[in-house]
Design goal:
single chain, 284 residues, Rossmann fold, 43% helix, globular, disordered C terminus
Amino acid sequence: MTLVSERIGQFFCDDHRLEYTEYGAGERWVVLLPGQLMPRTMHQPMARKLAATGAHVVTLDLLGHGRSDRPADPLLYSTTAFAEQVIALLDHLDASTAVLGGISLGANVALEAAVLAPDRVQGLVLEMPVLDNAVEAGILAFAPLLFVARFAPLAVTGVRLAARAVPRGLVPFWAGVGLDTLEQRPAAMAAAVHGILFGRLAPSARQRTGIDVPALIVGHEHDPIHPAADAAMLAEELADSRFVRSRSILEWRLRPDRLDGLAIEFVEECFRRPAAGRALGASS
């Protein structure tokens, strides 16, 4: 793989510090957003591959995630707030438009950004969006995290200290990402989960149908929190979209070549199109 430059940066949004990593250079901007409570390092392999093709890739730790600030106020956490952070990042980078990509919560945030600032979004790469069909499973999965963070904070602290004690150089990449995800602070974790669960989780169906940028949507079976039905529904709602069914929830993590190739091809296609605000063709 072609070697690309990597730089860590930071900026402030509403007085909160957010950290990001840049890969490559140029004006073909791509911003990748992580899943709930996960660090931006989860996108490192994809970011490096995209940058090797000439894209200028930025991976962002949203507020309450990774190495960004982690305030303990649940009112600060919602997809709308996260999307505003993405737009602030583009302003900070002086990037007029970008392809936005994300997984799970990150996919929802990318959708929200496309609603808030459609002229800034060149395209969308969305894996496992969390929409109408995932509500009950999402509550069952994340409500216990909220309960533990609120009422058993020492357990969260103990897990964080144990995870921090494991040298990252001794474990595989994805194990390291998992360990980094476990480094949570009880008050901030409770606030983030509370705000995401009970705040605005995604644009409404009416708003989603108004998104007119090209989208690559990846879904997979056997995952109740990210049902393939949500990804397929979104592909029907967006005017210019392509739905790809992953072979499993782990395909893009452990055997990424097929989906990496599709994503790289899609991003290159986005940059061959005119800037945001163009008329789009029929869905593929």
